[in-house]
Amino acid sequence: MTAKENRKKRIESSMRPGDTVLYSPLSNLSARNRLGRTWQLVFLSSTIIGILALTALLLNILDRSFGYVVLHAKVDPATFAVDGLPLEEQTKDQLVSLLETELSSGAFNKLNNEKSFEERSRAEVYALVIERLVKYEVEETWPLFESITNSGEIKAYAAQEYPGDKLTFISWLTADFISRPQSSEAVTAGIRTAILGSLWTILITILFAFPMGVGAAIYLEEYAADNWMNRVIRTNINNLAGVPSIIYGILGLAIFVRVLEKLTSGAVFGLVDPTTANGRTILSAGLTLGLLVLPVIIINAQEAIRAVPQSLRKASYGLGATRWQTVWSHVLPNALPGILTGTILAISRAIGETAPLVVVGASTAISMDPSSPFSKFTALPIQIYQWTARPQEEWRHLAAAAIVVLLALLLSLNAAAIFLRNRFARKY
Amino acid sequence: MAKKTANGLKQDKDPARPLLNLKKRRRPGEIVIQSLLFFTGFFSIFTTISIVYELGKEAWLFFRTPAVNLLEFLTGTKWQPHIEEFGILPLATATLVTTAIAMAIAIPLGLAAAIYLSEYASKKMRNTLKPILEVLAGIPTIVYGYFALTFVTPLLRSVFGNDIVEIYNTGSAGLVMGILILPLIASISEDALNAVPRALREAAYGLGATKLEVAVKIVLPAALSGIAAAVILGISRAIGETMIVAVAAGAGPNFTLNPFKAAETMTGHIVRISGGDLSYDSIDYNSIFAIGLMLFFLTLTLNIISQRFVRRFREVYE
Amino acid sequence: MTEINYVFETHGLNIFYGNFLAVADVNINIPRHKITAIIGPSGCGKSTLLRAFNRMNELVPDTHIHGEVLFEGQNLYEKSVDPVEVRYRIGMVFQKPNPFPKSIYENVAWAARIHGHKGNMDELVESSLRQAALWDEVKDILHSSGLAISGGQQQRLCIARAIAVKPEVILMDEPASALDPIATLKIEELMQELKQKYTIVIVTHNMQQAARVSDHTAMMMLNGGATRSGTVIEFDETNKIFTRPTDKRTEDYVTGRFG
Predict the structure, then answer these.
(1) According to CATH, where is 1.10.3720.10 located in chain A?
(2) What is the predicted ipTM?
């Protein structure tokens, strides 16, 4: 007797009338298992697609941050050599005098008025010489992967199409790129102005949104009774968190730029800067972004405060502390890492925001560093947007390089947040 | 000095034992702090009121101009301010197309990813994949816009042909917007799936259900309101998304449902108009507030519905 | 036939959570059409052992098993055995009532449907609910939520749900611990009915319940070793366990003198 027959017999011997015992395995099981495996594959691939998209996005940016480029000099730089000393090796003074002789006096004075030549660094003057005198122009560009795989053909093509011009493999992202101001020529353009603009704006955002957000979170978690008014406040904060960022831009335009123009342009402080464009200043932009991230900061801070155990508050009250004493010396210190982590994440969202800044009136072409909250401004994402929107390839390479800088900035902020979270891992 | 206490008894005036005083004391500092905190809490209400007031006021000015009437605004198929045509439909259809494409990508993929992470992935796998999706969600939208214009559009053009796919098109913007919203839907849905009690899964396994049957027929329906919340939030996000469409979808209103054609969405229009030199009290200035008001109420409604779903979900399981 | 017929036989069964040996060296035979109770102090691995009978343990990552569990003579843990098949034959009722958030009808019909039930579904639902002594209480509200009835009714719904699959064995993991005394009594009466057709294995921490309902009892206890693993120290007919236990620890436990 086989084991199966044996089993069948044993079962039958113990069966009573009405028993329903099945001998055969589930008839549909293999089909069900097949279906299960198919769908598991579908679920996995969907997750992988998300990751592939991320990879493609990053590779695409990398691809355009490096590569071959054909540069055409309108004036051969060799003609500016002084006593056989090529341009690259000349001192700042030599370069300034070169500019003075080659440019019209009007143009030279205009440059001097924007920023006096004493204040400009050698690198800036050199960039000016390249920009105004040598006038390199980008003729054609190739992205990284094509430059690597197709380098022979590109060289042959460039030699044939652009005789006399130089074909070089460049990184669009360089130290110079980061330290140079914005310029109208791709070869000399940089993002210093934009980075400084972003930092100034974010500073205002933090100064406004952090105290307001933490205050609101303390109020809602520690003070607010469960009444009609406070429920409205809570619901309202949740709703504000979902309002599209462009709406905040419109609000900023109406309130900060227009209604509060006297304040945001600095006029009330007696600042009358001819270059400021009314209320379209860093202050307006920072406050707008502040409104935007405020709900996020509040919600994160509320969570951090809620995580502080109730026993701690009871202990404090039990010793006769007032509410604020309890909050200040027990609740806040314990919630602080969580609050900071949440704030950093909110700020990293603000740094990448573009739409509200466009609406509030980020300027397009500024080469002047911002000097106060009342300066005109541009910002890193704005610069990326401007360059991306131009049809010529070279600007898109610059945009890719600027994106690398932006992502690096965000990555370090997020790393800081993760570090904070782990460093002060929850004690409770 | 003897003092009457609450119960009327006189207290001893022994100087060594100070009077017991349990009376409420004024604490001006506490009151000031509490008021300040209340102000910060109340500030958000003020923000909302400002949004509604400012958008409403300028929108009112917009609709009051002779060239505009509400019916034409809602049904007109041309948005051409220079010839005084203000029909929202071309902008609305572009928003519709990009949103629909985005959701067609983000809902199935996001949901499938959520199911994979919550029901199939090992702990180690989950701890690797989830942060990657979170990174995807943290990338600024302008970067997605760049990706749409410089990668997805050329891809679409090489697949479908340059004469069919325009350089700027809503399809590319919608696709990339879908990738942007995928992690949002995946993350919220995964939370909802995770919140379904283990006991339900065990009950289903105990009846001889396969993993797929447990995931799709028991856990998924049980988490449905949480997932609905995620989807609605995703739609709201897609409608309000700006930079991807501003970069990749095209400049200039175009009344078309063809995803390969350039068309400007409501948000894209606001950005383009306000990016130029916009003078106050011009009809262009007023019009962006009218469009903004529509966007605001549209997204607000969706967010409120989404929160309703979340609340319903919590009532069942928490 | 006079020969005792066993549904389950375990041989040297060891259950691990990671490196931790939770249940050690269990050798017991579960007789057919009888109620077998597993009793013992909390944390001694009663539920873990019960879940080994329908391979529920493996839903927890990092669990593995040494030894064998024979079901009708066949090792459940052989590589070729599909756990779905196992759980289809061996149903389970859990500690807390856990109806699906679906209608009462769907709760009962769902599993039969996924298993490809071809007969009349209404009949199956009715007969299952009748066997679970719930039909009269819910026949008019079949399409309202399974969560809308009382805890005791929910637990009987879970039993009906298990019956609808027509299993050979029903495993019950403290099925009455979340219920009030009246609902508990109903479940106990129901078990007496059900053992006519099914083999029942029940985990309980309530010794009176074990004494009332079961035919056989397995007494589990943590072994004294450094590993703190649970094991079956005595397995016999219930009245023997409660009146003439051979192990001193069993005697101490059933008489309430346990540590």
Answers:
(1) 193-243+289-424
(2) 0.89
Cβ separation A21–C168 shorter than 8 A: yes
Residue B85: DSSP 8-state: E
Chain C residues whose beta carbon lies within 8 Å of the beta carbon of residue B217: 110, 114
Q: Please tell me which of the candidates C74, C82, C168 has its beta carbon nearest to residue A29.
A: C82
C61 and B CB contact within 8 Å: yes
Asked if the Cβ–Cβ distance from C87 to B206 is below 8 Å, we say: yes
Kindly state whether residue C238 falls inside one of the protein's structural domains.
yes
Distance between CA atoms of residues B170 and B99, nearest Å:
10
Q: What is the radius of gyration, based on Cα positions, of chain A? A: 32
Distance CA A125, CA A329 (A): 54
In a domain, C104, yes or no: no
Overall residue count recorded for chain C in this entry: 259
> What homologous superfamily is domain B79-313 in, according to CATH?
MetI-like (1.10.3720.10)
Out of C72, C88, C196, closest to residue A10 by CB: C72
Pick from C86, C115, C158: which is nearest to B203 by CB? C158
The distance of A21 to chain C (nearest Cα, Å) reads 7
The size of chain B, in residues, is 318
Query: Would you call A26 and B208 a contact, using CB atoms and an 8 Å cutoff?
Result: yes
> Domain of C28: which CATH number?
3.40.50.300
The answer to whether C118 and A28 are in contact (CB under 8 A) is: no
Which residue, among A381, A382, A344, has the nearest Cα to A363 in the 3D structure?
A382
Strand C216-222 and strand C230-237: pairing?
Answer: antiparallel
Chain A positions in Cβ-Cβ contact with residue C168 (cut-off 8 Å) = 21
Place of tokens 């353009």: A189
**Contact: C84, A6; criterion CB under 8 Å:** no
Q: What is the pTM of this model?
A: 0.85
B172-176, C41-45, C133-137 — which one is most confidently predicted on average?
Answer: B172-176
Binary contact (B136, A54; C-beta < 8 A):
yes
- Chain B residue with the nearest C-alpha to that of C172: B206
Helix (H) or strand (E) holding B179: helix B170-195
Whether C165 sits inside 8 A of B208 (CB atoms) is: yes
Q: Which fold would CATH assign to domain A193-243+289-424?
A: MetI-like fold (1.10.3720)
Residue B272 burial (CB count, 10 A)? 18
Give the residue from chain C lying closest to A16, CA to CA: C197
Helix (H) or strand (E) holding A316: helix A310-318
pLDDT by residue (tens digit) across B55-97? 999 999 898 888 888 888 888 888 888 788 888 999 999 999 9
Residue that has been written with the tokens 């030699």 in this structure: A159
**Digit-coded pLDDT (tens) for B119-145:** 999 989 888 888 888 888 889 999 999
| Burial per residue of A257-282, b for 16 or more beta-carbon CB atoms within 10 angstroms, e otherwise | bbebbebbbbbeeeeeeeebbbbbbb
Instruction: In whole angstroms, give the CA distance from residue A28 to residue C117.
Output: 10
Tell whether C62 lies on the interface with B, counting CB pairs under 8 A: no
